[in-house]
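Protein entry
_____________
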Amino acid sequence: MSRSAVAGAFLLLAWLGVSLVAQGDGIVVEPIRFARGAWQATISGAVIRGERSLYSVDAKAGQRLTVNVSAVENNAVFQLYAPGAHPEQRDYGVAVVGKALVGAAEGDDATKWTGVLQQNGAYFVAVGPLRGNATYSLTVAIH
């Protein structure tokens, strides 16, 4: 994709009110923000085979985090990474480098995860399809 196309896409998303954060190598991570007074947020998205949608959520040690993903064809899963993780562009696509949380690591095929957080910081959520393309709903709650 050309730089002008990427710039145009960012302008369109900004106009639509979508807030994205570009990491190095043009990797996009969408920050999950909660409405004032809310403790959960739901994001609808779609991801094509071989790719992942990346999100980050800021949380504090001692808070309980719950992450759920659902898809019409039951083909969306996620990985959840502790603060300090970061996305990197690889030959095969985007990889998240860092410590995955137990039960939500690569290969766990997590659709639901709940736990008490051990660190302050930005937790990464990577949503991808098990097969084909996936249209999903991602719900993140912090108590």
About this structure: The helical segments are 3-16. Residues 1-24 have pLDDT under 50 and may be disordered. The CA atoms of residues 78 and 127 lie 4 Å apart.
